[in-house]
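Q: How would the structure tokens look for this protein?
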Amino acid sequence: MQKKIAVINDISGFGRCSVTVTLPILSYLGVQCCPVPTAILSNHMGFPHYFIDDYTDRMKDYIEIWRKLGLRFEGIMTGFLGSAEQIDIVKGFIRDFSRKDTLVIVDPVMGDHGKIYVTYTEEMCMEMKKLVALSDITTPNLTEACRLSDTPYKAAGWRKRELYAMAEQIAALGPAKVVITGIPQGGFIANYIYEQGLEPRIIRTHRVDAERSCTGDVFTSIISADGVNGVPFDRSVRKASAFVKKCILKSVEMEIPKTDGVCFEEVLYQLKRD
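A: Here is the predicted structure in token form.
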């Protein structure tokens, strides 16, 4: 049977992020994407204006129908969550729909560049730690990894032992696999891979452009599909890192505005199905 991932995230009509990124990537990698919408947006919040329809009040009824239908998923993937209540709903979803072989992937979308998003409260940060504790794989960026491990943030100069200590603290919450993304290393961007029982690894790619919106959605979508398809974690991180770079290069070539994310559609055929 075709594998399925329940994707708990918002749906943004414009800007290439969240479900509009995850759905085509999972589909291309042979996995059915089953969205649980947390909000409907006209475009992502990186634009100066946006419409948002918060879906919190309807999530429980939506999920209850899935429960009555007895639906099962090989994976559960979470992205941006807009409130402590939504995080609590997602924790309940994981408890209700996870089986022994269900892979849970949490992208703890909380902030970037050393700052927590203005929409995030201290309560939400603490609840996100509890959500990460229910995951098998988590994909925090450097800012989020610092917050999850209570480590002071710095923009550069990270030593391997510091990254190891941070990843080990995050893994101690629950996930067996952690990848800390977006670590600046001179002309490179690094991803630090921590997998229980294996030697930690660092994957580096050349920095090719200023950061673009929603590359994390591309990255985590690949990690999620590969995870349920049984692709080794380090190979998946290498693939995701290389593909994000291809997306950025193509977006620069096509002069895509940074707020519009990356034009992954143009290079999707280059994403290997391991």
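The chain has a mean pLDDT of 95.

Residues 233-253 form the longest helix (21 residues).

Upvote if useful.
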